[in-house]
Each structure stands twice: as C-alpha cells, then as structure tokens.
Write a structure and sequence with these properties.
The chain has two domains: 388 residues, DD-peptidase/beta-lactamase superfamily (Beta-lactamase), CATH 3.40.710; 82 residues, Lipocalin, CATH 2.40.128. The protein has twelve helices and 21 strands. It is α+β, with helices and mostly antiparallel strands. The radius of gyration is 22 Å and the shape is globular.
C-alpha cells in the first residue's frame, strides 16, 4: 500500500433512559487511548488499512476512526463510515424474529413448515420436524456453508427452493455447527410472516425503531455513504478487493452500518428493550431470552443463545458475534452485567488478528477479565486462536479419532502419524490441503500446533453412544464416513 492516512475521530455520548444526551468529557480515557494505540500498532503489523473502534462503558460511548476506507482512494475512517457487518447481521435477524414472536406471527418452537409449507432438505423427517428455533441457534444439522444468487426480492424464495437436496451432516441439535443456510431460511420466514421483502422487514422491524440512520442492506444503500472497501493482505502487500460483493442473504450477512449505529444497537441489547427515543421495541423478557443459553457448543466451553454466541471470560459473561465478508473482519461483543460493549470493524482479511488482540486487551483493561489456561473457545463468525493453551502431557488414545469425515464439497481426513494426529482437508475437486498437526489440550479438544493455522481449535464431537462421529473445523462439522 503506497498511501496510508491515519485519522482519528472521537465521539463521546452519555445515554439516558430516553433520548441520548450529549456532554463533553473532561479528559480522555487512558484505557481507550491505550486500546487505540494498540489497534494502530496492529494495523501496521497485519496490514489493515482501516479500523473503526468503539467502546460503550457505563453509558459513555467513545469512537475512534483509524486509517482509511480505501487504499487506492483514501478517505479517513470516521464514526459514520459504513462497514458491511457480515454475520453480525444474524443478531439483527433474530431481533426481527423476536419482534414477530411478540406480535404473535411466529412461534420459535413451531416447525419451519408452519411458515414455509414447501420447505425441504434431503432428510424428510428433518424437513418435517425442524423448528424456527433450530434456525436461530445453528442446530438444524444440514450443511450450512451455502448461499444462492442475487435475485432481488426473490432471492430468499429462490434459495429455499434450491436446497432440497442439502446434505444432513447431523441430526438437529446433535452437533453444533455454524450455519449460514439456517439464517437464510429464517429470513424467508420473516418475509412470509410480514408479507414484505427482507430488506423492508429488517428496516421496519429493527433499523427504524432503533434509529439506526446509516444502516442498510443493499449496495444501493452503501454507495451513498462513506464506505469501507475490503482488502486482502498477503506477504506484506495490501490490495483492494474488486469487486465488492455484498452478501446475497440479508439475514445471514447482509447488513451494513457505521460504528455510531452499531453501538446504539449494542446499548439496546444490553437494556430492557427500550430504544433511545423511549419506544418499547422488545419486551425485557425477549431481550433476555436472546441472551439465554439454548445449547452448549460441544467440546468447547461456549454456548449459543438466540443468535448471540455466549462465552465466560474470567468472572464475566460475554455475548458476541463476529463477521467475515469480502475483505472485512468484524466483531461486536456486549457484557450486559457490566454495561460494557466493544466493537471493532476492519477492512482487511487479516483483521481477525487485530480484532482478537484488541478485544482481549479491552476485556482485561476495562473489566479485569482474562481467559483461563486451556479454555475452549468456539467459532462465533470470525477466526480466533485459542487464548492460552498447553497440550496435555499425556495424549489420549488416537484411534477413536482416526478416519474420514465428510461434507458435501470436501472431506477431512484424520490419520495418526508419529504419535500425533494429522488433519488434512480434501476438496472433492482440487488439490488436497496441507497436513495440519494437532495435539489435544482437553477431552475431544485439539489445537493446531504448526503452520499458518497454529493456535486454532479443532474439536471432535461424540454421538449419543459415545462414539467420535464428527470433527468441527472453523465451526463447521463434518460427519464420519463408514
């Protein structure tokens, strides 16, 4: 990158019960300044052109724009620069769905077919019985890493009709597996319940009631804003990604907005369901239900709520969602019990490393929270390495884990070699991936010990009979083949 401009924009606001009140702050917060300095250092280290950093701490909002929106046509990142927030959009989908639940238009425990009579995946029993709740908790069990083409207002209708032969990799609820497809189906449920397009529904149910002035769901919405373009950083060179391709599924990953709006959204989700203007958008019980553990993510210490990914860090509980899309890596994390939230929006595929470094320092400096040794963290929409890991001195018997595990477009081969396990991804078409050595640091929990993925988690999941039946890589499970 030939040009780098670092610009800082700070905004502080104190929110009351009703409309937000603004007041000047007597001094800068040393913790935030240290955090911003860390972010700047990591931008240089990882080749990240632009970052929006925001903290909400006991009602005080502080936002800093760092770097530029575009390496080739640089404008400073500001508090109102729009980033596509990718999978953080799933929490917006769940918020919209909870509004429909309160309106009596949707029941989370009813089958999807109650709203989409023609819904079908490969397994007929699953097609008949799977519920809306399964969609919002990544527990449907079918392959989730699929999307459909852009078809305007028919996009989600087209998608639902295209997945009738979608592979079932696990029975519903048996093996937690990150599932974009489930949230796309949920988007079609929202369309059916509201009688409007998903773009209109998310605007009417979420953006407008919460006063999110820069939020949108289409390229047309984004192009009229100062927009952070995505970049790829590789071998020390940062390049602009062309073209920018928005997610075709609004509910799986299609929302975009600025840091100011994102922290207003965070404030709402840490409150009692009241918007900044005093409107009761959701009942307190609905907001709290979204933050209530619905299921454990097997072989990790994390849980899933209604869209929110739940994690204990030291004495606190965090609720978060990350996002990954077209050269953007993003994170929103809230800690309601401490009235604290942090959001980090980056415009580089290397941004996940910055995100985890800054997020972990923020939890430590603001809340005194640090990860435990060998704490098993699960995927939550962006890459992360295990915070503090030490492989077991005595490794378990490797035989139960050896085998081949399948997904529709690839298989994962696990073999024992030299007293350790080697994992290899094998696409159905194309060259096999590199050998990835792993070591166990806990029951069914392994860490990559070498190579570019070093420090990342790989988990094995057992079936009801105790047999190792799935491997989970970057949050997605593959099922053992006979």
């Amino acid at each position: 990158m030939n040009t780098r401009t670092v610009a800082s924009v700070a905004m502080m606001a104190v929110f009351g019960v009703g409309a937000p009140a603004l007041r000047a702050q007597p001094a800068r917060d040393a913790r935030f300044e240290a955090l911003a300095s860390l972010a700047e250092a990591k931008m240089k280290e990882y080749g990240v052109p632009g970052v929006a950093l925001g903290v909400l701490d006991n009602g005080v909002v502080t936002i800093r724009g760092l770097g530029v929106t575009n390496a080739e046509d640089p404008l400073p990142v500001t508090a109102h620069t729009v980033f596509p927030i990718a999978s953080i959009s799933k929490t917006f989908a769940a918020t919209a769905m909870m509004r429909l639940v309160e309106q009596g238009k949707v029941d989370l425990k009813k089958p999807v077919r109650a709203y989409l009579p023609d819904f079908r995946v490969r397994d007929e029993a699953v097609s008949r019985d799977v519920t809306v709740w399964h969609l919002l908790t990544h527990l449907g069990g079918w392959e989730g890493q699929v999307s459909g083409p852009e078809r305007g207002t028919e996009t989600l209708t087209n998608f639902v009709t295209s997945i009738t032969d979608l592979m079932q990799v696990a029975p519903p609820g048996a093996a937690w597996s990150y599932n974009n497809a489930g949230f796309s189906i949920a988007g079609r449920v929202i369309e059916t319940a509201t009688g409007t397009s998903i773009n209109r529904a998310i605007r009417d149910l979420v953006f407008q009631p919460l006063g999110l002035e820069h939020a949108g769901t289409t390229a047309g919405d984004f192009i009229v804003q100062r927009f952070a373009a995505g970049h790829t950083s590789r071998n020390g060179v940062t390049t602009l990604q062309r073209p920018f391709s928005p997610s075709t599924s609004v509910t799986a990953g299609g929302v975009g907005l600025c840091m100011t709006d994102l922290l207003a959204y965070a404030r709402f989700h840490m409150g009692d369901g009241t918007a900044a203007n005093g409107e009761q958008v959701l009942k307190r019980e609905s907001v709290e239900l979204m933050r209530t553990a619905q299921a454990a993510k097997q072989s990790t210490d994390d849980s899933i709520g209604i869209a929110w990914h739940m994690r204990h860090v030291g004495p606190i509980r965090t609720f978060a969602h990350g996002g990954t899309l077209g050269g953007h890596i993003l994170l929103l994390e809230i800690v309601p019990e401490r009235n604290f939230a942090i959001a980090i929006l980056t415009n580089s595929n290397a941004g996940w490393r910055l995100n985890q470094d800054v997020e972990r320092e923020a939890l430590k400096s603001y809340l005194g929270a640090t990860y435990a040794l060998n704490q098993g963290i699960a995927h939550r929409g962006l890459l992360e390495t295990l915070p503090s890991v030490e492989p077991l001195a005595r490794q378990p018997d490797l035989a139960p884990y050896v085998g081949t595990y399948a997904r529709p477009n690839n298989s994962v081969n696990v073999r024992a070699e030299g007293g350790k396990l080697i994992v290899q991804d094998r696409p159905n078409n194309g060259r096999p991936g590199a050998d990835v050595p792993i070591s166990f640091y806990g029951p069914d929990r392994a860490v990559v010990t070498d190579g570019p993925d070093r420090g990342q988690s790989i988990e094995f999941v057992r079936d009801a009979g105790g047999r190792v039946n799935w491997i989970r890589v970057v949050g997605r499970v593959a099922v053992r083949t006979p």
